[in-house]
């Protein structure tokens, strides 16, 4: 085991570059772990390794101060030397409580990279270009920065801590892109495809959603029906399920059921042979064949025409189908994930959706909360997007203004609003949100008209609400009672 452990922060490019400089200065003889200020006290409390020195680079001390002091004092008793290198000074409280337990190298007038260079008495010139936060950088800098972004994405979504350390070690030892190992190349390819699709938020509802995704992903054959309003990220959730499952190295295909003429759906699903119809000049594989071994995500399943529902039902029953004009059955192993923002039980009652198909799709039901149900996550979603695109954080006033709106279009609408602010250079987010409300005022007319149809009597309102919750949870009595926090008999009475 190495004698030195380097803990470095996430986010800014300067953090891993500074860690790479430190690693280079100690001759590559150090272990590296990515670390956040929130996690630091807990990590140091449970630290049981044999390193003689822990170096904190780009890690703030603004976590739980009492826990941090206790952890640092225990490390000092065990003769583990802790060094904090920073371009941000102690707060007065930290100066009194934390500073006695560690060695600090702080200089607020220099960059973190320069402070590290001073501490180790080395030259940072060769690594400085990698720490630049800019869209236009040289190709070799860009490739390494993309590896760092991919490593951070893998940590946030899949708890992969090794990739970040590997990226830092590559920079320290001068390993170029053409000699990266297969895992490093794989995570970059994965990031390019899925990096824009991420679940962000620490609210209880988001934590519950992520926990259920992790649970569902462990069962790679179970069909999943995702329910959620437009803009909540249904495809992102489907991707998370796929990427956390045993099928993660197999294909993932997404298809919008409302995007294709009903007459062409059979060909899209199952493919066709040459000459199957006018214009079919060659054999084409369908979605089920393309996704064999992996996952097929069918969005807006509620818009699937009745005649196509029968086609889908047949392949779900046996996992076999024939291409259009084909003569041989094809067997596939595909996990099917479907999604809708429509009330499928209601469409079943109206005769617009087959009940037998609904039952086969509704094996595992996963509901995505609307943004107005977890508005506390607006801070992380908005600030993360703004930081990525503008390299600065939103102010508290801007975040407060964003949280004054309910976003009927959910996360998609929030990100559109932020993009408009960036394009127009608008810094007054209160004015921005007010203008946005005016622009979208016409969209709320239907909602306003629905208010006039709400009954005046309390019992009638309760019955209406219970019925809506009952439909929302697929007419499942137990889930309805749990959501309403009442007994099953109470639900029956109001129904």
Short description:
This protein is an alpha/beta fold. It has 23 helices and 14 strands.
Overall CATH class of the largest domain: Alpha Beta
Radius of gyration: 27 Å
Mean pLDDT: 88
Q: How is the biggest beta sheet arranged?
A: 5 strands, parallel
- Span between termini: 66 Å
Q: What is the tally of beta strands?
A: 14
Alpha plus pi helix count: 23
Shape: globular
Poorly predicted runs = 445-453
Named CATH topology of the largest domain: Rossmann fold
**In CATH terms, what is the architecture of the largest domain?**
3-Layer(aba) Sandwich
The total number of structural domains is 4
Q: Helix proportion of residues, in percent?
A: 40-55%
> Order of strands in the sheet with the most strands?
2-1-3-4-5
Structural class call reads alpha/beta
- Quaternary organization: single chain
Portion in strands: 5-15%
SSE diagram, text form:
Elements: E1 4-8, H1 14-25, E2 31-34, H2 40-45, E3 53-57, H3 65-77, E4 81-86, H4 92-97, E5 103-106, H5 112-120, H6 139-158, H7 162-173, H8 182-194, H9 204-217, E6 224-227, H10 234-243, E7 252-256, H11 265-270, E8 271-272, E9 284-285, H12 287-290, E10 295-299, H13 306-318, E11 320-321, E12 330-331, E13 335-340, H14 344-349, H15 355-361, E14 364-367, H16 378-390, H17 396-402, H18 410-424, H19 429-439, H20 445-451, H21 458-472, H22 477-484, H23 488-494
